[in-house]
Specification:
Layout lengths: L24 H16 L5 H16 L4 H7 L5 H17 L7 H8 L3 H10 L5 E4 L2 E3 L2 H10 L2
Antiparallel strand pairs: 1-2
């Protein structure tokens, strides 16, 4: 008997939404990109999960509804969107003051979620274990990555 295999494709516009007249365009693009990286990641990939959850929070704060967020990232359901928002808020409180959370590292680096996750996977940026399976980044490492980014 053959087992079923599924492929999930996420289509993203090739042009930048930075210049889009849609005020939520950038948040939509970041959310879709973070979700694509999250799905590509191993289930224990903490950095990708945190970045995806933070993108959900930022999209919600920008004015997107839970149902729109759910539809953009693969119909995960509104209750799961709410859970992701709660996880992101709790994690933000757990990061020591002298370190950056993965979501803060995305913002500080100026990179996209996919670029930062790729830097971690390629070994160009090393997370610091802060206990409990959580990771954070040294600000100087993030700044050095920003300086070498294309």
């Amino acid at each position: 008997m053959l087992s079923a295999r599924y492929v999930i494709l996420t289509c993203m516009p090739t042009r930048s939404t930075q210049d889009s007249p849609d005020p939520l365009g950038v948040e939509r693009q970041r959310l879709v990109e973070a979700e694509a990286e999250y799905r590509r990641a191993r289930s224990e990939d903490y950095v990708a999960r945190v970045i995806r959850d933070a993108a959900i929070v930022e999209a919600h704060r920008a004015g997107m509804s839970s149902s729109e967020i759910s539809a953009l990232i693969g119909d995960i359901g509104q209750p799961n969107v709410v859970r992701a928002r709660r996880r992101a808020m709790t994690r933000g409180l757990a990061t020591p003051g002298d370190l950056l959370s993965p979501a803060d590292a995305v913002r500080a680096s100026g990179l996209t979620p996919a670029e930062l996750i790729a830097a971690v996977r390629d070994g160009r940026l090393h997370p610091v274990d802060i206990g409990g399976g959580a990771s954070a980044f040294r600000p100087e490492d993030v700044n050095a990555l920003r300086a070498t980014a294309p």
